C-alpha cells in the first residue's frame, strides 16, 4: 500500500507556516516568561553563567537536531520512503529512532563520565576556578537525559510535518517551557546557591513530559515511535550520509553562538549571560517565523524534488524568500533601534540591573542586524538539503565558522591568561597573529554573529545554479518595496529614543504605531506579501482554510 501523495501549494505552505508559527509564538512567549524568571532569580553574575553554560550544552544539541542536522537528513529520506510503500516507511522511521538512541546514549555516557572536560570545551574560561567547573558539571549531569527526549521528539515532529500535520515540535517546546517556568517559580523559594540545581531538575522532568505528550500523536498516524535495532540499509545509510555534513551546514548560527559562549567565558563575569539574554530576544522572530517556515518548506521541497517538479520547487523558494524579507527586515530594524528598552522591559528586575540591560543591548543590536540574512540562508539551505546536497551547506558552515572565529578574536580584545589552560594559550596566540584588533568585549562577539549571517547568505547564493540565483535575487529585489516602510519604522524608533521614557511606555507607544505605519505604507506600495498574509488570516478567522 503506498502512501498518498500530496502536491504542495502556496496555500499549503502558508497554512503550515501559520500553524507552526502561531504555536511557536506561544512557545516563545512562554520562553520569555521563563527567561524573565531566570534573570530575576539568577541575575547576570557567576551563578547565572554556571547554569546557562550547563543549560547551553543540551540546548545546543537541541538546536542542531531540532533545527538542523537530524530533521534535515530525516525528512527527505522519509518522504522518499513514503513514495514507495507504507511498511518500508514505518520500518525506516523505527530504525531511525533505534539508531539515534544508540548514538545519543553513547554520547550521554561519555559526557557523564567526562562532564568536567565537556564543560571546559564549552567554557574554557571556567578553568580559573575548580569549584565553578564542578558545579557546572553537576548541573550538566542532571540535564543529560534531555538529549534522547529531544532526538525522539525531532523524529516524531519530522514524521508529522511530512504528513502535513504541523506543530508537534512547538507543542513539545510549550510543555518544556511550562515545566521550566514551574521550576523557576519553585527555585525562588530555595537558597541562591541551590537554585541552579532546582532548574536543572526541571529540565530533566521536562524531557519526560514532552516525550510522553508526543508518543500518542505518532502512534495515531500508524507510525509507533518504538525503536527497532538499526540494521544497516540504503535508507538509513542515506540519512546518515545527509546528516554528517548537515551538522555543520544547517546550524551555522548555532555554531557561532556556541563559539561565542566559549570565547565569552574568557571575558569579564556576566558576558555569557549578556549574550544569552540578547540571543533569546533575537531568537523570537527567528523561532516564530524562520524556523516555522523552514520546517514546513523542507518537506515541500523534498516532495517536489522527488516528483521532478523543478518549476514548482523554484516557485516555493521564491515565495519563502519574499516572505522572509517582508517579515524580518522591519523587525530587525525595530529591535536594533529599541534594544535597550526592550531588554530593560523584559529582564530588568531582581538581580538583573540597569547596567546588565545596557550590556545586553549592545549585543542585541548586532544580533538583530543578522536576522534577515540568517533567515534567507536558512531558506536557501533547505533547497540544498531537499536535493540531498548537504555537502554544500557543510562547506559553507566550515567557511563561515573560520571567518566568524577571526572576527571574534579581532573584536573581543585581549583575554586574561588562565593558569594551566591550553585553550587560553591558543586564543592568545591566534590573537597575536591578527594584523589589527579592537577591544569590544562581548559586543565584538555579537558583531561576529552578524558577519557570519551575512557571509553564509552570500556563499549560499554563489552555490546556487544560475537560474536559482536569478530567482532568489529577483525575489529579493521585488521585496525591496518593503524598505520605505521599514525605514519609516526605524525613523520613528530613533525619534522616540530622544525622549527618556520608561521602558514600558516606550514599547507601548512604538509597537502599535510602528505596526500601523508599516501596514499602511506596505498597502500603499501594493506589497504582495502583505495581501497574501491578510488573505491567510481571513481564511483562518472564517474557518474556511485553517
Summarize the structure.
This protein is mostly helical and 546 residues long. The protein has 23 helices and no strands.
Written description of the protein model:
With about 550 residues, the protein is an all-alpha fold. The chain has one domain. The chain is about 80% helix and about 0% strand. The longest helix is centred in the middle third of the chain and has 36 residues. The chain starts with 9 loop residues before the first helix and ends with a helix. The N terminus is likely disordered.
Structural descriptors:
0% strand, 23 helices
Gross morphology is: globular
How many structural domains? 1
Q: Please report the total strand number as a whole number.
A: 0
Output the structural class. mainly alpha
**Uncertain stretches of 5 or more adjacent residues:** 1-10
What fraction of the residues are assigned to beta strands by DSSP?
under 5%
> How far apart are the first and last residues' alpha carbons, in Å?
29 Å
Topology:
Blueprint: H1 10-42, H2 46-66, H3 69-84, H4 86-113, H5 115-122, H6 130-143, H7 146-162, H8 168-187, H9 195-220, H10 234-249, H11 252-264, H12 271-306, H13 310-337, H14 339-347, H15 354-369, H16 371-386, H17 391-412, H18 422-433, H19 442-463, H20 466-478, H21 483-497, H22 503-524, H23 528-542
Amino acid at each position: 500500500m503506498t502512501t498518498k501523495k500530496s502536491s504542495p501549494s502556496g496555500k499549503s505552505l502558508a497554512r503550515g507556516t501559520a500553524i507552526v508559527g502561531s504555536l511557536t509564538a506561544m512557545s516563545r512567549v512562554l520562553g520569555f516568561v521563563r527567561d524573565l524568571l531566570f534573570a530575576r532569580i539568577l541575575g547576570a553574575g557567576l551563578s547565572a553563567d554556571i547554569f546557562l553554560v550547563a543549560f547551553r550544552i543540551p540546548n545546543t544539541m537541541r538546536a542542531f537536531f531540532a533545527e538542523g542536522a537530524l530533521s534535515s537528513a530525516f525528512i527527505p529520506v522519509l518522504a522518499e520512503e513514503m513514495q514507495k510503500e507504507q511498511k518500508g516507511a514505518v520500518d525506516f522511521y523505527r530504525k531511525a529512532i533505534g539508531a539515534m538512541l544508540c548514538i545519543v546514549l553513547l554520547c550521554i555516557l561519555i559526557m557523564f563520565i567526562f562532564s568536567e572536560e565537556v564543560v571546559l570545551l564549552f567554557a574554557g574560561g571556567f578553568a580559573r576556578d575548580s569549584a565553578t567547573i564542578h558545579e557546572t558539571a553537576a548541573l550538566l549531569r542532571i540535564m543529560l537525559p534531555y538529549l534522547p527526549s529531544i532526538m525522539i521528539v525531532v523524529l516524531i515532529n519530522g514524521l508529522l510535518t511530512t504528513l502535513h500535520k504541523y506543530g508537534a515540535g512547538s507543542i513539545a517546546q510549550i510543555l518544556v517551557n511550562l515545566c521550566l517556568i514551574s521550576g523557576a517559580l519553585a527555585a525562588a523559594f530555595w537558597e541562591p546557591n541551590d537554585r541552579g540545581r532546582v532548574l536543572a531538575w526541571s529540565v530533566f522532568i521536562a524531557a519526560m513530559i514532552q516525550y510522553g505528550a508526543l508518543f500518542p500523536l505518532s502512534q495515531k498516524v500508524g507510525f509507533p515511535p518504538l525503536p527497532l535495532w538499526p540494521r544497516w540499509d540504503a535508507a538509513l545509510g542515506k540519512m546518515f550520509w545527509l546528516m554528517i555534513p548537515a551538522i555543520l551546514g544547517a546550524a551555522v548560527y548555532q555554531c557561532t553562538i556556541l563559539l561565542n559562549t566559549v570565547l565569552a567565558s574568557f571575558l569579564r563575569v556576566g558576558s555569557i549571560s549578556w549574550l544569552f539574554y540578547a540571543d533569546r530576544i533575537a531568537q523570537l522572530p527567528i523561532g516564530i517565523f524562520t524556523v516555522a517556515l523552514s520546517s514546513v518548506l523542507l518537506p515541500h521541497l523534498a516532495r517536489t524534488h522527488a516528483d521532478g517538479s523543478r518549476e514548482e520547487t523554484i516557485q516555493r523558494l521564491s515565495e519563502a524568500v519574499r516572505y522572509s524579507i517582508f517579515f524580518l527586515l522591519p523587525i530587525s530594524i525595530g529591535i536594533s533601534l529599541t534594544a535597550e528598552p526592550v531588554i530593560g522591559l523584559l529582564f530588568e528586575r531582581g538581580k538583573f540591573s540597569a547596567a546588565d540591560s545596557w550590556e545586553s543591548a549592545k549585543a542585541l543590536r548586532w544580533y538583530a542586524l543578522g536576522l534577515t540574512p540568517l533567515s534567507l540562508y536558512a531558506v536557501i539551505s533547505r533547497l540544498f538539503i531537499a536535493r540531498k546536497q548537504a555537502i554544500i551547506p557543510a562547506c559553507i558552515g566550515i567557511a563561515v565558522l573560520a571567518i566568524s572565529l577571526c572576527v571574534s578574536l579581532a573584536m573581543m580584545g585581549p583575554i586574561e591568561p588562565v593558569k594551566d589552560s591550553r585553550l587560553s594559550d591558543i586564543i592568545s596566540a591566534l590573537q597575536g597573529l591578527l594584523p589589527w584588533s579592537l577591544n569590544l568585549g562581548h559586543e565584538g562577539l555579537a558583531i561576529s554573529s552578524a558577519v557570519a549571517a551575512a557571509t553564509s547568505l552570500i556563499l549560499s547564493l554563489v552555490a546556487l545554479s544560475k537560474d536559482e540565483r536569478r530567482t532568489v535575487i529577483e525575489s529579493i529585489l521585488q521585496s525591496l518595496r518593503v524598505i520605505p516602510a521599514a525605514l519609516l519604522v526605524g525613523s520613528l524608533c530613533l525619534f522616540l529614543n530622544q525622549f527618556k521614557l520608561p521602558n514600558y511606555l516606550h514599547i507601548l507607544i512604538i509597537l502599535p504605531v510602528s505596526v500601523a505605519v508599516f501596514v499602511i505604507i506596505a498597502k500603499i506600495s501594493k506589497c504582495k506579501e502583505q495581501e497574501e498574509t491578510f488573505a491567510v488570516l481571513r481564511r483562518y478567522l472564517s474557518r474556511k482554510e485553517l
